[in-house]
């Protein structure tokens, strides 16, 4: 039986977002997965992040508690999911799997992936309108929503352009909604997105 773990040698994750470190193999009939361990080497030292064995999944490094998991539903998919990435999570991660064959001997394989954590500035936002064409009758309802990419959390602000280049702050939410439009709502609106 031929077994190979596969996964990329490098992953770029976005700060405060989640990342998956892929590790997978094609299950082989006579081989039973015994243990799976993800270990890490980074600035703060090294250790086992999470281990799966007959008794379940165990998170062994406290800084990863409640932030890491391995898929439960897909045999052969032993990828590591890390939530809410910290800059300190960057490092070299090793996926180690052992299998037992029909003669009760053990086979072990491992692959290594380096994780870089990057901060991404908020992108220029785009505005999505509930309706195409923003000429609407009085009394109609409508909304505009603001969307940007980048490292979460992203916050939004909506403004209405006033006389002589002034701007009036209307909302600190991503969506601006009018339940019932009035003629005085006509104007130029803009949104701003920012993150840390």
From TrEMBL:
Annotated signal peptide: none
InterPro entries: Ig-like_dom, Ig-like_dom_sf, Ig-like_fold, Ig_sub, Ig_V-set, VSIG4
Xref: SMART domains: IG (SM00409), IGv (SM00406)
GO molecular function, one term: complement component C3b binding
A Pfam family matched in the record: V-set
GO biological process terms, semicolon-separated: negative regulation of complement activation, alternative pathway; negative regulation of interleukin-2 production; negative regulation of macrophage activation; negative regulation of T cell proliferation
Stretches assigned to the Ig-like domain: 17-112, 125-196
Entry-linked PROSITE patterns: IG_LIKE
UniProt superkingdom: Eukaryota
PANTHER family: V-SET AND IMMUNOGLOBULIN DOMAIN CONTAINING 4, V-SET AND IMMUNOGLOBULIN DOMAIN-CONTAINING PROTEIN 4
Entry protein name: VSIG4 protein
Native organism: Rhodinocichla rosea
Lineage, uppermost ranks: Eukaryota, Metazoa, Chordata, Craniata, Vertebrata
């Amino acid at each position: 039986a031929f077994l190979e773990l596969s996964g990329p040698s490098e992953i770029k994750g976005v700060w405060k977002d989640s990342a998956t470190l892929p590790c997978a193999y094609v299950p082989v009939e006579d081989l039973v997965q015994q243990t799976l361990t993800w270990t890490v080497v980074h600035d703060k030292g090294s250790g086992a992040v999470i281990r799966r064995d007959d008794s379940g999944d165990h998170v062994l490094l406290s800084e990863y508690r409640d932030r890491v998991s391995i898929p439960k539903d897909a045999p052969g998919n032993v990828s590591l999911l890390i939530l809410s990435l910290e800059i300190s999570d960057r490092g070299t991660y090793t996926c180690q799997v052992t299998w037992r064959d029909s003669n009760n001997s053990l086979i072990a394989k491992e692959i290594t992936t380096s994780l870089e954590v990057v901060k991404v500035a908020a992108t220029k936002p785009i505005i999505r309108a509930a309706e195409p064409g923003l000429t609407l009758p009085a009394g109609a309802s409508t909304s505009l929503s603001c969307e940007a990419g980048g490292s979460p959390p992203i916050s939004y602000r909506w403004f209405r352009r006033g006389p002589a280049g002034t701007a009036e702050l209307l909302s600190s939410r991503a969506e601006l909604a009018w339940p019932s439009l009035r003629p005085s709502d006509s104007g130029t609106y803009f949104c701003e997105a920012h993150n840390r």
